[in-house]
Amino acid sequence: MKFIYITTVFLLLLLTTFVAAQDSSCAGRPPNQLCLKPMNVGTRGRGCRPSQMWYFNERAQRCERLNYLGCGGNENRFCTLAGCQNSCI
Length: 89
Fold this sequence. Notes:
With 89 residues, this protein is of the alpha+beta class. The protein has helices spanning 2-24, 81-88; strands spanning 51-57, 62-68.
């Protein structure tokens, strides 16, 4: 009886892990909400350091360059192309 209980628990854990792995690679999952925000280059100002960054263009469904002005803006801003792609595609 104990063996059946332990085996059942193990199989349920294995199944849960498998389902979670499938969900994370599901192409139809809802997009990361920060990726849906519009491009925002931020503002200039004292102490702001402009830099080239990346944002997700929802209409084109790809990551594009962003000339960030250094302050403000929104969360749809990534330091690298890979970071943008990993979060949004």
